[in-house]
Amino acid sequence: MDSEVSEKRGRGGRGVEFCCLSYPLVKAGAYLIPIEFGFVAGCIIVLSTTTPTIVAAVDTLPHIFSLVLLILAIITLAWQVIGLATVRIEMSSIYRLYIRLNFLLVLITAATAAIGTVVIATKHKQSTEVCTRIYGNPPLNSSNGVSVPGLDSFAPGEHICNYVMWAQTAAMGGLTLILFLTQRAYGQKQRNALQQLQDHDEEESYIMQRASLVARGAARSAKSLNNVAKIACATPSQARGLATVTDTPVRSFGGLRDQDRIFQNAYMRHDHGLKGAKARGDWHRTKDILLKGHDWIIQQMKDSGMRGRGGAGFPSGLKWSFMNKPGWEKDPRPRYLVINADEGEPGTCKDREIMRGDPHKLIEGCLVAGRAMNANAAYIYVRGEFYLEVAHLQHAIKEAYADGLIGKNACGSGYDFDVYVHKGAGAYICGEETALIESLEGKQGKPRLKPPFPADVGVFGCPTTVANVETVAAAPTIIRRGPTWFAGFGRDKNQGTKLFAISGHVNNPCVVEEEMSIPLKELIERHCGGVRGGWDNLLGIVPGGSSVPILPKHKCEEVLMDFDSLRENQSSLGTGAVIVMDKSTDVVQAISRFAKFYKHESCGQCTPCREGTTWLANMMERFEEGRGNNREIDMIYELTKQMEGHTICALADAAAWPIQGLLRWFRPEIEERMRLYQEKNGPVLVGGRRLKDMDPDYAFPANMGTPLSPKALTQ
């Protein structure tokens, strides 16, 4: 433990891991320094070269005011030089002192200049009288007889004094405005960096305290050792605003700050290439992470509480550890990491934003996750329709190879790792991990029976782990900033941040990263401008993509967006694709479209899925117009229960759950639709047949057990 602490601190504090020292002119607002430098220099030039009348307004402001402002400006200017030097040579301790005092100095200087400007402006008439008394009406010729051309245009002394005073007011006001706008635009980055440094220091101090306690406890009695262990296992508090490690009864979730967002280019507003990625902190000290070894990386992921973001919610660290079973070193087979980027579920579009805007995050995540699994290569299996995403990924991979970040001796760590992109052909079933592996091998995309699991027999018969894009892309940032930071978001067992793709009847559909456990209502109102027509116009919400049950309005007001809360409310987080439906929606038709989608995408390998999805689609199509019998509502529910859990993969479950949610919360809507249809067309038998169209001589499911006519018996 002591060696780890000393290694973290490094020589002169240079080993401390915080963003602003690695890329000084991009991170933490360090590029604010030259701008502030220019501002203060401008103040000094004005104060040093103009007359006291112009600068301090004789008889309007004391002469000492000009001197005080000059001294403040010189001190601030000198401090800017110190700050610039400390950033360039990465002297972290002095830089922290600079961060603390810089804003205060500049604020005092600007406030002093602003006060003087306001006083001069308010006493303009008095200043003009003083100026006129000093300059008077200047003659056309000077006292030594030399002609002074041009002064005749300012014959009245009052005119030139007016120009001078207003010029002075505008100059000082302009300089003050420039500083305000600059500090507003860039100064926040400095304060954010300071907050991160303080968080890092607190965590580092906790690590050292824990190491010291454990070391001293070894020499104590059993009772004392027990007390030390309790202290050493305590959870450090985090000065992170809303995100805390320990939940409290009044804890509220949501309102993720920008500096806590992992995916900072989701809308592709910035450069998606290597230069832009490094500016956002990607590839920072990746070599150090790789050199820590696979056990350390996996433990960091376990401590973070990260659960898979693909829908199942399986603990990521535990899943990655399956690749390193005892004796894995003796297995001569190559090992692979496969990234499931086959994002084909209706409503889901979060992974494509990562591949399009932050491809280097995914590639770096592949490298880190691959090191954790001791994999030799990664295959990124991308949905065939994602043309732009594939292009950005290929470009990013090319840049990473050229920069030595992947390939032979990746990042100079001695670890060899390759990354490949493979395009799918648009089949939804290939989003299932074993079907994806089959497709990757060039076979028909149909799920495999398990066991054996991919960790034993995966791609090309080799150990393989299939992971989601968001899960892998977030890993480097989690490890860099520490598992405690990530675990500070969300409720227990639901930690971290999550990308939510919000679509449907909202004012501003978007993909946004937010804290886990944020209330569903707050998520929509904070980031989407609310439901179209107001919250009272809401009918229901599908909280996790087309494969999860819908929730009615009264449930949406209370539920939290995490795995456990949604499960308690008989739904699921799924992929985090939120589909909002207002009261103009035909909810039966919407769920019917889901049923048709799953019927079309079923591979047909399992009978319950092949036949069940067909029956579901046909029955839901009839329910749209109300052509059904109330008994069929119970029949379709029983059918979904027979499909659920009885197939090789979970596609049958995905087809069944939306219908179960519809029947659970909106059954009266179906019954009312059937009643209206029967009022218009007469009774409807099981199977959708109208009684008036039936031949009474033949037995059908609806009239089984009734006597057949002699005519029917003879045929």
Draw up the topology in text.
Elements: H1 2-9, H2 19-22, H3 32-49, H4 52-56, H5 63-89, H6 92-122, H7 124-135, H8 157-217, H9 222-232, H10 274-279, H11 286-291, H12 294-304, H13 316-321, E1 336-341, H14 350-357, H15 359-373, E2 377-382, H16 387-402, E3 418-423, H17 433-440, E4 464-468, H18 469-481, H19 483-487, E5 497-504, E6 510-515, H20 520-528, E7 538-542, E8 551-552, H21 553-556, H22 563-568, E9 577-582, H23 587-601, H24 607-625, H25 630-643, H26 651-681, H27 710-713
Parallel strand pairs: 1-2, 1-4, 2-3, 5-9
Antiparallel strand pairs: 5-6, 7-8, 7-9
Helix pairs in contact: 3-5, 3-8, 5-6, 6-8, 7-8, 8-9, 12-15, 14-15, 14-16, 15-18, 23-24, 23-26, 24-25, 24-26, 25-26
Describe this structure as you would to a colleague.
This protein is α/β, with parallel strands linked by helices and 715 residues long. It has four domains: 2-139 and 154-204; 258-487, Rossmann fold (3-Layer(aba) Sandwich); 492-582, Ubiquitin-like (UB roll) (Roll); 586-715, de novo design (two linked rop proteins). Helices cover 52% and strands 7% of the residues. The protein has 27 helices and nine strands. The protein has helices at 2-9, 19-22, 32-49, 52-56, 63-89, 92-122, 124-135, 157-217, 222-232, 274-279, 286-291, 294-304, 316-321, 350-357, 359-373, 387-402, 433-440, 469-481, 483-487, 520-528, 553-556, 563-568, 587-601, 607-625, 630-643, 651-681, 710-713; strands at 336-341, 377-382, 418-423, 464-468, 497-504, 510-515, 538-542, 551-552, 577-582. The protein has a five-stranded mixed β-sheet with strand order 6-5-9-7-8, sandwiched between helices. It has a four-stranded parallel β-sheet with strand order 3-2-1-4, with helices on both faces. Strand 5 (497-504) and strand 6 form a beta hairpin. Helix 7 (124-135) packs across helix 8 (157-217), helix 8 runs antiparallel to helix 9 (222-232) and helix 14 packs across helix 15 (359-373).
